[in-house]
Amino acid sequence: MIPSTEQAGPPGAETFGELAATLLEASLTGFILFRPVYDAQGQALIDLAYEYLNPAAQHMLRLPERPPETLLTLFPAVGEQEGVLAFYGDAFLSGQRGARQFNYQHDGLDGYFHVVAQRQGERLVVSFTDTNDQPRTAVEAALRESQAREQAARAASEHQKEEFQRLVEQAPIAIAWLRGAAHVIEFANDRMAQLWGRPLAQLVGRPHFEALPDLANQGFEEVFDSVFQTGQPYYLQEQAVLIQQNGGPYQGYFNITYQPVRDEKGRITGISASAVEVTDQVLARYQTEAKERQTNFLNEELQGANEEIIANNTELKRAQRQLRQLNEELEGRVAERTRELRLARLDTERQRWRLEQLVQQAPLAICVFDGPDWVYQLVNPQYQRMFYGRELLGKRLVVALPEVADQPLMDILHRVYDTGEPFTSKEVLVPLARTAQGPVEDIYFDLTYQARRNENSQIDGFVTYALDVTEQVVARQQKEALHAQMLAAAQRQVQVRQELYQVLEQTPAAVAILRGPAHRYAYANAAFQQFYPGRALVGHQAGEMLVAPDTQRYLAIMEDVYRTGEAFYGYETPQLLAVEEGFSPELHYFNFTISPYLESGQVTGLCVFGYEVTELVRAKQQREVQQKLTQTVFEQSPTAIFVLRGPTYVLEIVNPLMEQMLGRPRALLLGRPYFEAVPELADQGFPEFLRQVWDTGEALVMQEQPGRLAYHQPHETGYFSFVYQPLRDEPQGPVTGIACVTVEVTGQVKARQQVQLLNEELAATNQVLTATNEELNATNTQLTRTNVDLDNFIYTASHDLRQPISNIEGLLALLQEVLPAAHRDEVVAPVLSRMHDSVERFKRTIANLTEVSKLQLEFAQPAVPIRLATIIEDVRQDLLPQLTEAGARLEVAVDDCLPRVFSEKNLRSIIYNLLSNALKYRHPARRAHIRVSCAAEAGYLLLRVADNGLGVDEWQQARLFQLFQRLHTHVEGSGLGLYMVKKIIENAGGTIQVESQLNVGTTFMLHFPA
Fold it and tell me: Is the pTM of this model over 0.70?
């Protein structure tokens, strides 16, 4: 089961979790839940542990639900070889959704996978599919067969290469490969490193004469250049070479072969060098030749001495008497010569013995055949070791080695013995048995046969010098066979490539192959070529064919794939193309893959595989626009709408009004069966309505259908008018869904019910109203008389109080005049001043009472058409002194307002009060600015009077229009002006509002009825 991560949630959350588990269990798509595995420091993500695989993933990967092993343990190739682990790591660390497609043919898997990875908390969720269970297209099958053949050929080639590498490394001869015209050392076996006297690490990758400067100026430069340029092999026999070994110079002799190395196209790419050290053999031969020269010299001396003795004896016989006297002297000379001859013979024997020792110790195989029957007279140990256990000495060649009797070798030996001409050849094939009972083997020798002559210059035998080079020959043959196999594999690849090209020509997908870092087209099938009409692609660079501004973007992608070897996948990618010659480029869309083209494991080009999806993208864009339009219509619809899908009526669309009507958020509605999401409707007849529409395919219209939802109170019922409309995917197809448009009419139904009830009550009430109207008329008459009495009272009170106040004011003035200055002390003077102030305030109160009494009379002022601009200008003239004194700026913008029917006197009073207040309560720190403007607004004339004065707090604004309220006491005022303005406006059917901010300013907004 899925590892639980649920917490306590709203009702239905457990059901959703069960649904999610069921979906994962039933899904054909594989899902994996990974947990990251970090390094010892807890920093770097190095692996992923499995926490859960759904059945589809278990089937595709052949794994259990919770494998104990990690990802890299089970699938090592997902690391550096395929880069899948890096892809998962990037998706986890970035938190961004990642998608990738790749072909995985490792660790027992063989499939093309589509993978999406997304981090969820501290886990990584991976969704994937493969194509193993799906029929493959001809192109994919051909590609996979090609890949299989290529992999098999590559594996065989790698195996052969490893075998050859092993043979070369273990070869007893020195071998090296030099690459390019600079003769860079690419490979050398241990034997060659020993000859060079340096470790391989100091040599590989460096030019030959830079790594081995002591070999320069010995003629090898010309040899290397000749082989590399002409392709002709070069052989050096017993070449003297001076080289540094063991810290000092070393003079050695070598048999060296230089051969050209060619690629699959026959081009020379380097030189192979093989060498056998023959220093010991050469030195031994030099010593033998020196001894032979010395022996011949002594023999010649002895022969001369004998001839001289014979001549002397003849002369003695003729002149015996003359020589008798010299006899003693002559005998002494003869004795001396005899002694010297004996010593010379002893020295010759000693030299012969030394020569035999050299032959016995020589590293080459040497033997001497005596007489015309070719009897083994001398066999050194090296020669005997080649035929272990076979007795050779004293036997004829055909007896000791009978297998050679019928071989071409016998003709060669006869020619040497008969003519005395030496024979030297390399890699001569001689089938021989190395042991007496052993099988006959193909053995290769570097052979030299040299005739031997006696003292009479007659041939009496011959000497054989042999070097067993079987291993070298076999190694070379294997190398040549491997080269032939590699050439055959390359030819097969060419054939496969041609077959692939034939297949690609017939595929509707666009395919192209680009070579080299310049991305030059090497192949493009017809489907690819049609996107570039009139232009030949092959031979041209990709950048020449792209249309700006796509050029840099696509070249950057190609460079990245060529550099990293990682494929790029484009999905519905836009590109500008002129698909018809002579037409301007148009925007097209493609799904494509740019993958590295590998040869011998190296990226040599790019392979582009794609197909056009322009129509699909445009259709999808149109669908998205249509869906957005439909969604907008649904969202903004004044009616409640939902859409149900399937026979279980799963909610697919719910607009805001329907969400509000059902009393649940859309998150708890969408994706759930209707009667599961709204269970209270299941037993109110609605399932039968939906079933009727589903079965008949006909729309159902219901008016004022009662229904109770979860938010209704007990015994409360809602009423709804709705239409159930069947939905079909095809015009004549079966019903696949139902759309519902609903209007709640609960208010109308209840209103109608109330109207019916009220009509009944109204009939009874009318009788009561008739009597009540009569009482109201009498009451109105009484109120009218009361208002008149109140007006009379106010007028009388204000008139009667004026005279006493005037008397008090006169008496105070008289008192101040007659009171001596001596009595005006600091006590009396302030009292008189306060009495005078009280009288002034009382006079103002009487004046205000008079104004209030007059206000009732002003309501009946006649209304006439007036222009605001005219009234404002009159008031401005009245307030001009105050405006000038304050330095205030008055801005008037009412020219666009039409004339209004209103009391001219009342309107003037309103304007005057507002402008004078703006001047009174201006801010002392800035110049006063008053702006009067107007606008038409919803059947009203809106008049705005704004200033930048002192302003008031929000809590003071509620008291602003009250009678006798003053919020600023530093200037004179009665608190009556704004009260009067409000009364005038409201009595005319208008309103007044205020917006104010302390120390910022105040705006009055007056709405006059139209």
Answer: no
